[in-house]
Amino acid sequence: MTLTRQEINRKLFHLFALLMPAGIFYIPQIPGVSNVIPAILLAILLAAIAAVEKLRFRYPNINRIFQNRFSSLLRKEESGHLTGSTWLIASALICAVLFRNTPHISFMALTLFILGDAVAAIAGQSIGRIRIGKKSLEGSLACFLLCVMLFYGVFPYIPLLLDIWGGTVPGPIVFITSLAVTVFELVPLKITKHLIVNDNLAVPVIAGLFMKYLYPFFG
Question: What are the Cα distances from residue 44, in Å, to 37, 49, 93, 107, 143?
Fold first, then answer.
């Protein structure tokens, strides 16, 4: 595997997506702001992005302009399919709705995937030797280790984030959620033979569900 400048640019651009979990968690902290506001804002953003996607699929000239403008950020298969960013915005919207009363879960789930996916791709393409499908064991190990690091070395120090959980994430949740992010980032989630759920959509939601339903047992 070879790490390309395109993949580096793509993952650096995806770091802007961290604004979504930050907004989901901190916007409702503003006095008088409802916890449904992040979902409304994300729905508006998704509708706008979906409109752009529809236009470029319908009109080849618009798609060519789109491809030329964002060629350094797009993968080849995204020329005729939804971009990963669109799927990620949809995932953030689902998280904002599902975990509207526990926005810290949305924050952690989305952050784990955004950074874990980036590290997996960069490590896999730069030092990956053991192939697992289109990805690598080294990339997956990097993803898992980063997730654990975030749980222990970052999330407890983010203001207000874990106050509801007493300032820490229980160890079993750290391990199981980190493993879930790693596995579902690595292995495509197949509903049927021809229906595969995009990992940008699936992984944050799955990670959030693990945290939500495991906490009553380990919290």
Answer: 11, 9, 10, 19, 31
6 pLDDT higher than 90: no
Q: Which two tokens stand for residue 145?
A: 């280790």
Within 8 A by CB and 6+ apart from 29, the residues are 160
Residue spans of the domains in the chain: they are 5-218
Give the tens place of pLDDT for each residue, 88-117. 999 999 999 999 999 999 999 999 999 999
* Stated pTM of the model: 0.88
**How far out from the chain centre does Cα 59 lie?**
29
C-alpha atoms less than 13 angstroms from C-alpha of 3 in its C-beta half-sphere: 17
The separation between CA 137 and the C-alpha centre of its own chain, rounded to angstroms, equals 20
